[in-house]
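> forwarded from #structure-qc
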C-alpha cells in the first residue's frame, strides 16, 4: 500500500504542469497534497470530477493561501481539519483522516518567516508543531497506527540540506525549529525515509532560482513520520526528485496492505499466507467504484 505526500505549490498551477497524469500513474491509495492555495470551488472540473478518487479539501480562510487536500481511493471513515485553536484552524493546514485502523495526518507546517523574512512566525510555527504533537500523543501511546506527512518546513540535521553552515540562522534550520522536530523523534516517531536511507544528498525542496535543482542544492523538509505501531507494517520509503511540477517533489511510504485492518501484524500475515515482505497488496483498503 503506497501513500504519497507532495507540496504542490498551488494545485491549480500543478495541474497545468502534469499533476493529473502523475496522479493516475503513481500507484498510490492515498495522496496528500499541501499548499493547495485554492478554495474547493475554485479547483478545475478535472480535479473535482476525477474518476476513481475521493477528494477532501481543507482551505484557509484567506484566499490563495495555504490549504491541504487528500485524494484517496475510497472515502475516509472520518476526517477532521481542526486542532481547536482558531489562529491555527483558519489557515487550513491540517487533515486527520481515518481509514480503518490507520490514521493519516496531512499537514502543511508553517514557515517561520514573516512577510519581510524577519523570523516573526517562528513562535506560530512552534505552536503548530506542539499543538499537533499533543493532539496525537495519547493515540500514539495507546499503540494506534498513525502517519503524519507533509511539508514540515524544517530540515532536521545537517545531512538534510546541501548548505547547512550558510543556513544556521535561516528559518527552517534554526536550533529551536530543529529541536522541536527532534522532540517528535525522541518520543518515538519514526522518520520513515531515514529508517531506510542514512546517506545525504536526498532533498525534497529546491529554490526556484535557475540551476539550483539541477545542481541538487536542496533541503529535505518533507517527511512521513510513523508512530511506533506502524513499524511492523513499514516496507519502504522514498523521495521522488524526478517528478517536477512544483518546487517540492513527492515523497512516499510503502506499507503492508493489511495496515488498515484491525488485526495485529502477525495475524494479518497468517491470513494472507504470505511472507511479510510479500504481503503488500491493498485488498483490505479497497478502491472507489469496486465491490
Amino acid at each position: 500500500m503506497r501513500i504519497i505526500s507532495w507540496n504542490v505549490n498551488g494545485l491549480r498551477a500543478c495541474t497545468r504542469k502534469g499533476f493529473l497524469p502523475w496522479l493516475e500513474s503513481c500507484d498510490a491509495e492515498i495522496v496528500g497534497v499541501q499548499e493547495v492555495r485554492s478554495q474547493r470551488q475554485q479547483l478545475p472540473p478535472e480535479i473535482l470530477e476525477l474518476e476513481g478518487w475521493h477528494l477532501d479539501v481543507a482551505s484557509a480562510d484567506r484566499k490563495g493561501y495555504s490549504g491541504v487536500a487528500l485524494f484517496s481511493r475510497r472515502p475516509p471513515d472520518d476526517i477532521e481539519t481542526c486542532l481547536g485553536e482558531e489562529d491555527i484552524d483558519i489557515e487550513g493546514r491540517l487533515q486527520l483522516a481515518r481509514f480503518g485502523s490507520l490514521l493519516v495526518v496531512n499537514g502543511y507546517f508553517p514557515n517561520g518567516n514573516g512577510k519581510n523574512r524577519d523570523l516573526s512566525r517562528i513562535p506560530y510555527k512552534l505552536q503548530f508543531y506542539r499543538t499537533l504533537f499533543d493532539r496525537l500523543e495519547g493515540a500514539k501511546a495507546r499503540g494506534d497506527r498513525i502517519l503524519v506527512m507533509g511539508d514540515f518546513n524544517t530540515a532536521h540535521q545537517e545531512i538534510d540540506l546541501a548548505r547547512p553552515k550558510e543556513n544556521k540562522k535561516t528559518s527552517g534550520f534554526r536550533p529551536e525549529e530543529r529541536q522541536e522536530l527532534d522532540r517528535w523523534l525522541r518520543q518515538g516517531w519514526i522518520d520513515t525515509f531515514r529508517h531506510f536511507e542514512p546517506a545525504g544528498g536526498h532533498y525534497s525542496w529546491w529554490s526556484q532560482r535557475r540551476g539550483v535543482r539541477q545542481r541538487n542544492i536542496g533541503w529535505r523538509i518533507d517527511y512521513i513520520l510513523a508512530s511506533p505501531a506502524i513499524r511492523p507494517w513499514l516496507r519502504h520509503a522514498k523521495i521522488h526528485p524526478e517528478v517536477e511540477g512544483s518546487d517540492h517533489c513527492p515523497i512516499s511510504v510503502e506499507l503492508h496492505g493489511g495496515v488498515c485492518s484491525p488485526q495485529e501484524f502477525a495475524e494479518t500475515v497468517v491470513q494472507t499466507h504470505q511472507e511479510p515482505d510479500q504481503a503488500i497488496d491493498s485488498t483490505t483498503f479497497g478502491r472507489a467504484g469496486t465491490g
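QC bot note: The mean pLDDT is 92. Residues 2-272 form a domain with the Deoxyribonuclease I; Chain A fold (CATH 3.60.10.10).
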